[in-house]
Design brief:
- This is Antitoxin YwqK.
- It holds the Pfam family MORN_2.
- It comes from Klebsiella huaxiensis.
- With 611 residues, the protein is mostly beta strands.
- Among the domains are: 3-137, no CATH class; 393-465; 477-554; 557-611, no CATH class.
- The chain is 11% helix and 47% strand.
- It has 7 helices and 48 strands.
- The chain has a 25-stranded antiparallel sheet that branches. Strands 8, 9, 10, 11, 12, 13, 14, 15, 16, 17, 18, 19 and 20 form a 13-stranded antiparallel sheet that branches.
- The longest helix has 16 residues, at 87-102.
- It is flat, with a radius of gyration of 41 Å.
Length: 611
């Protein structure tokens, strides 16, 4: 057996997705000496195509390698049958390889053939071990790959890296850890950017544990944070975070053995304090917790007790006027809450019970002090809702049952007082008519519902009040006639029969001026199936027969053709016979063809010999 080695090249992403029914055709198995090689996988494309040994198209996965394979190309295919596995077992095997692929590990492959018929197929893949591939392919990595949180990850998902081995600091008796950004900032290609610098008590940095001071930087070179860790690797002492602008602090905190304990301050970019609070063992301390605008004026005022907001709370506009006031009890808003406009006018008044649920009447006002809406609640469940336009005209009215579900007619009005919509509900489910009108009072639509589903005849009118279409529904599906009318004349132009949303029955089209029938075609299970008739002023102008949407034959001026055939016209007898033979009555069709043939009609004779 041959052993061939491939080296690393460019990194590419891998995409994994396995449909449960991807592999349906069996692959013929042929015994041949497998070819063995060692390589790295660049990526895997799932559900591609390959050619079997019988030269038929197969569904297979395509493996891309980082160099040429023994088959002198950088791709090979694989499928469950080539591995001798079930689709499920094959998919699980490929998925299990993903972390090693992303980490640029080497793999041990076997392939069935390179020069035979069809696509070369991989027959096995194993992650390299020293025993399987040799020590050359098991060299210890010179890097540790990390994500943005400084946690270990695979190479292709890494944002940072640490070079090994770590240098040992004899004075500190710790190993120094320096992290670098993988992608240099634009404009600094080829120049490494330091991401962090600190110390650890483990030579391998396996647990990503820091001891002592840690500094971190943005890609721009600006410092992003400083922190200190105790001998157990927990945050200890002062922690500072910065904006991505030189020396602009974002927040400071104090930690004790990994828990925030002390003052925590958040800053604006201009250096002003946004908020300031105290923590004890990672829990916010009792007392006031003010927030400020960038100019130092008060923005919010509230207090904590036993980890919960407690007592009066205020929010202010930048000019110092109250924006919102409320009261907290054990972290829940209770009692009356008020929201204000910048002018000082009340915008909203709400009420909550001791459980923090809406209870009572909430009122919303315009900036001019006009009542815009009211909502009535009982222990969190809405019982009624009304709203008005600023001119005082009623805008909306909704009724609810005792459980807070819409019940009865929910109505909306235009500003001119005309009714806009009316929808009937029964315990939050549409039941009855859903109607809509135009601003001029003309009806727009009507949809009947039963238990939340369309049931009955729906109607739609144009802006002039003319009926445009009607549709019969049963259990949310079209059942019965669907009719359309001309917007110009008001005459019906189309009627289609439906059964359970599928055309079943006659589809009729009418002249939009005279209302006379133009055509009628039968449908069966959504397909044209049967005889279509088209009409003119003299009656039926043509008939066509269909089978599952396919037109089989057509007969033009069928009444005239039938009369001529009865009068002995051989050409008419042939046309009539051919249509009947193909479409409706083969015996009658044969009889007419025989009559035409007896009169010397060659087309009839030919058709008879073929029938």
């Amino acid at each position: 057996m041959r052993k061939i080695t491939l080296r690393k090249t460019t990194i590419a992403m891998i995409c994994m997705a396995y449909p449960s029914v991807s592999y349906l055709q069996p692959l013929p198995q042929e015994k041949s000496e497998p070819i063995i090689f060692i390589a790295q996988i660049d990526k895997i494309d799932i559900g591609k195509t390959a050619i079997g040994k019988d030269m038929k198209l197969l569904l297979a996965d395509r493996f891309y390698f980082k160099s040429k394979t023994p088959c002198n190309r950088d791709t090979l295919s694989a499928r469950p049958q080539s591995f001798g596995l079930t689709p499920k077992a094959y998919a699980e095997k490929i998925r299990s390889l993903v972390p090693a692929v992303l980490d640029d590990r080497y793999f041990y492959f076997t392939v069935d053939q390179c020069d035979g018929e069809g696509t070369s197929m991989l027959t096995d893949i194993e992650i390299c071990t020293e025993a399987l591939c040799g020590a050359e392919y098991m060299k210890k990595s010179l890097y540790i790959w990390l994500n943005g949180e400084i946690k270990a990850t695979v190479k292709r998902r890494a944002e940072l890296f640490v070079e090994l081995p770590l240098p040992f600091d004899k004075e500190k008796k710790l190993w120094k850890v320096v992290g670098w950004y993988i992608e240099p900032q634009e404009g600094n290609a080829g120049k490494k950017r330091m991401a962090f610098e600190g110390y650890t008590d483990e030579e391998s940095f396996k647990q990503q544990r820091f001891i002592g001071e840690l500094k971190s930087w943005y890609k721009s070179g600006n410092i992003s944070g400083t922190a200190n860790y105790n001998k157990e690797g927990n945050l200890q002492g002062r922690y500072d975070a910065y904006y991505d602008e030189k020396d602009k602090k974002a927040e400071t905190a104090v930690f004790a053995n990994g828990l925030m304990s002390g003052e925590y301050i958040v800053y604006y970019k201009n250096g002003a304090i946004e908020s300031q609070r105290q923590f004890v063992d990672n829990k916010i301390a009792d007392g006031e917790c003010p927030h400020y605008y960038e100019d130092g004026s008060i923005k919010q005022q509230h207090s904590y007790l036993n980890q919960h907001l407690e007592g009066p709370a205020f929010e202010y506009f930048a000019d110092g006027k109250i924006k919102e006031k409320s009261t907290y009890r054990q972290g829940k808003v209770v009692g009356e809450g008020v929201i204000y406009f910048p002018s000082g006018q009340i915008r909203l008044i709400s009420h909550k019970n001791d459980r923090g649920n809406d209870d009572g009447v909430s009122e919303e006002y315009s900036e001019e002090g006009k009542l815009l809406s009211t909502s009535t609640y009982k222990d969190g469940k809405q019982l009624a809702k009304k709203s008005w336009y600023e001119n005082g005209q009623l805008k909306q009215e909704v009724l609810f049952d005792s459980e807070g579900r819409r019940n009865g007619a929910a109505k909306e009005w235009f500003a001119n007082g005309q009714l806009n919509t009316s929808v009937s509900y029964k315990h939050d489910v549409k039941d009855g008519n859903a109607e809509e009108w135009r601003e001029n009072g003309q009806p727009k639509s009507l949809y009947p519902y039963k238990d939340g589903k369309l049931d009955g005849e729906s109607k739609y009118w144009d802006e002039h009040g003319k009926l445009q279409f009607t549709t019969m529904y049963k259990a949310d599906k079209k059942n019965g006639p669907d009719r359309r009318w001309s917007l110009n004349t008001g005459k019906m132009t189309e009627e289609v029969a439906y059964v359970d949303d599928i055309k079943n029955g006659m589809k009729k089209e009418f002249n939009d001026r005279t209302g006379k029938l133009l055509s009628a075609v039968p449908y069966v299970d959504g397909d044209m199936h049967g005889t279509e008739e088209t009409y003119d002023q003299d009656g039926v102008s043509a008939i066509r027969c269909y089978r599952k949407n396919e037109q089989l034959a057509a007969l033009y001026k069928p009444t005239e053709i039938t009369n001529r055939a009865n009068q002995g016209d051989a050409a008419a007898q042939y046309e009539l016979g051919k249509y009947l033979l193909t479409c409706t009555d083969s015996a009658a069709g044969m009889a007419w063809l025989e009559k035409a043939a007896k009169q010397g009609n060659s087309a009839a004779r030919l058709l008879l010999t073929q029938s």
